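Each record in this resource describes a single protein on a pair of labelled lines. The shape at a given residue is found from the number at the same position. The record below illustrates this layout:

***
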Amino acid sequence: MSRKEKNTAGILAGLLAGAAAGVILGMLYAPEEGKETRKKIKNKANDLKDQAKNKYGEVSEKVKDQYGNISSTFKETANNVAHTMKDGYDKYKDQIVSKTADVVKDVEAELNDLKK
């Protein structure tokens, strides 16, 4: 996970925790019956849990998508580099073989001239 995503996740977790604490404190100090307050706290906790699950799912999907994109881009780039290197190798190999054959012919010709 990138630094920006970690910061975003941290801020999101802090906001959710702060909201939960604020809701709980507000309910505890509200002039209601204890049973009703506990029910509201339970409902609000369930709502916050669902929101956190949803947000986690969204962030998780984004990370998976980005990983998939980066992975496919890397594979494509690696394949392009491999093909380019192979093409260059084949090109220069053929040139070297050709030059070597020319040099061998020249050397043989020189040897033949020296033998005469």
About this structure: The first helix runs from residue 3 to 29. The CA atoms of residues 59 and 81 lie 33 Å apart. The chain has a mean pLDDT of 82.
